[in-house]
Design goal:
0% strand; elongated; Four Helix Bundle (Hemerythrin (Met), subunit A); 2 domains
Length: 268
């Protein structure tokens, strides 16, 4: 790899440059929020728009440096492709049929996910939880469906507004599960069937507390696994660095021994 690429890579990976980019992202996020106010845009006399385009220009320069520094490997990194997509969206004109893409400019705020290592770790952990979350989600769907069928058959004639048919029952049970004014759904039924409290209490415990704790458990396990992977990666980097240092010391020792032998030969 040419020395120029190595220097550019060291520059874009340096901590001060990373903090500078994070600052630019935050400024850009603030500008996107201010642009939602027509009064502020009118009073800014165009400097707010110019500042926004300046931040976009900085993003373009940063991406150009990273593409030059990493070459083809840049396009094999998911976070780099995400950054490229966000910046390209910002450069598409908002006229001539592309006005809807103006809304997508807010995605530039999400560049914080790729710029901050801890955020990348959380996102990677969430992606790793998708298989487990899918299984728990399927379990929740089965629970709500079975409860909906039971509620429709038992409470349909008592409270047709909430349990008259299966779709209505599913919607009502979803409202009960979220806790959004759930008493208004439950009370008309429990007034006619006092034992119905037991059904709804068991449903709330199973759907809200047990399933929710399963989601949390899967997320925590993924975060711990991601943390272990990061720790292992850091340890490997340290060990690799130690090996390089020991190798350099061994070469230096050999060179010193050779110089001593040469000096001994000359003195003899």
């Amino acid at each position: 790899m040419p020395d120029s690429r190595l220097r550019v890579r060291a520059f874009v990976d340096s901590t001060p440059f990373q903090w500078f980019i994070i600052g630019v992202i935050l400024v850009n996020a603030a500008i996107l929020g201010l642009e939602t106010s027509p009064r502020l845009m009118a009073e800014s006399n165009g400097w707010l728009t110019a500042l926004g385009w300046l931040t976009v220009g900085i993003f373009v320069v940063e991406l150009g440096l990273r593409i030059y520094a990493y070459g083809r490997s840049f396009f094999r990194d998911g976070w780099s492709l995400f950054d490229l997509f966000v910046v390209v969206i910002a450069l598409i004109p908002t006229s001539a049929g592309f006005g809807i893409l103006r809304v997508l400019r807010v995605l530039r705020v999400l560049r914080l996910l790729s710029a901050v290592r801890s955020m990348r770790r959380v996102v990677a952990a969430l992606v790793a939880t998708i298989p487990g979350m899918a299984s728990i989600g399927a379990l929740l769907v089965m629970l709500v469906y079975v409860s909906g069928v039971m509620a429709t058959q038992v409470f349909g004639t008592t409270d047709p507004d909430h349990f008259g048919d299966l779709p209505t029952s599913l919607l009502s049970l979803f409202q009960v599960m979220t806790g959004d004014d759930w008493a208004a759904v439950v009370r008309p039924v429990t007034d006619e069937h006092p034992w119905a409290w037991g059904f709804f209490i068991l449903y709330i415990l199973a759907s809200t507390y047990i399933v929710l704790n399963l989601f949390i458990a899967v997320a925590v396990e993924a975060l711990e696994r991601q943390s272990d992977d990061d720790t292992r990666e850091i340890v490997d980097e340290i060990e690799e660095g130690d090996t390089e240092i020991l190798g350099a010391l061994a070469e230096l020792k050999d060179e010193v021994a050779a110089l001593r032998a040469e000096l001994a030969n000359r003195s003899a």
